[in-house]
Amino acid sequence: MKENSVVAVYHSHTEADQAVKELQRGGVDLHKLSIVGKGYHTDEQVVGYYNTGDRMKYWGKVGAFWGGFWGLLFGSALFIIPGLGPILAAGPVVAWIVAGLEGAVEVGALGALGAGLFSIGIPKDSIVKYETALKTDQFLLIVHGTAAEVAQAKDIIRTTHPVHFSQHSGDEVAVAA
Predict the structure, then answer these.
(1) 76, 69 contact by CB (below 8 A)
(2) How many CB atoms lie within 10 A of CB 25?
(3) Contact by Cβ (8 Å): 47, 56
(4) Where are the beta strands (DSSP E) in the chain?
(5) What's the pLDDT band for 77 if we cut at 50, 70, 90?
């Protein structure tokens, strides 16, 4: 099902966290928000992940960052995706990735993450850019919903100074830098 979405790329978890707080203050429905990132940097050592009931926990340098998202957003997961390595995800994107892993979405050479993003209307060329951002330890913030909800989110995201953001509407794409 094609959906309206806006995808923003941030250099750090601190920037992504601030953007989520701004979206929350702006009244954006957090059930329509996802975040994806590696959750670590090369100089950090992840001690571990564990699940407590309905929440996954993270031990490591940015544990508070991921723990906060897993408390706010619906769904969380750790995936090891060929070509990307281990990624952490929170929000509806988890279900999109699972659908890609289960083969519910067949999209040529795209991996599970790419197939999940493609399934909601994000074009393949944009997906390649987003996967490259993840490979370089950046974070993706995705908001999906009605045209009005996405427009509201885009206006808020613009004020948070992401590296890049794009608005997607089915097969039509409007790009901003």
Answers:
(1) yes
(2) 9
(3) no
(4) 4-10, 33-37, 48-52, 55-59, 76-81, 85-90, 139-145, 164-169, 172-176
(5) confident
Kindly report the number of other CB atoms within 10 A of residue 121's CB atom.
18
Q: Report whether 8 contacts 164 (CB < 8 A).
A: yes
Higher pLDDT, 98 or 149: 149
Identify which of 142, 3, 151, 9 has the alpha carbon closest to the alpha carbon of residue 73. 142
Rounded to whole angstroms, the Cα distance separating 150 from 23 reads 11
- Name the phi and psi angles at 15, rounded to 5: -65, -45
pTM of the complete model: 0.78
First to last CA, the chain: 27
Q: Torsion angle of alpha carbons 44, 101, 169, 3, nearest 10°?
A: -110
C-beta separation of 16 from 142 below 8 A: no
Say if CB 61 and CB 47 are below 8 A apart.
no
Select the more confidently predicted residue: 41 or 154. 154
| Pairs from 82-85 (Cβ < 8 Å, separation ≥ 24) | 82/111, 83/111, 83/131, 83/135, 84/111, 84/113, 84/131, 84/134, 84/135, 85/38, 85/135
* pLDDT computed for residue 106 by the predictor: 54
Sign (positive/negative) of CA torsion 138, 146, 75, 68? Answer: positive
Cβ-based neighbours of 53, under 8 Å, separated by 6 or more = none
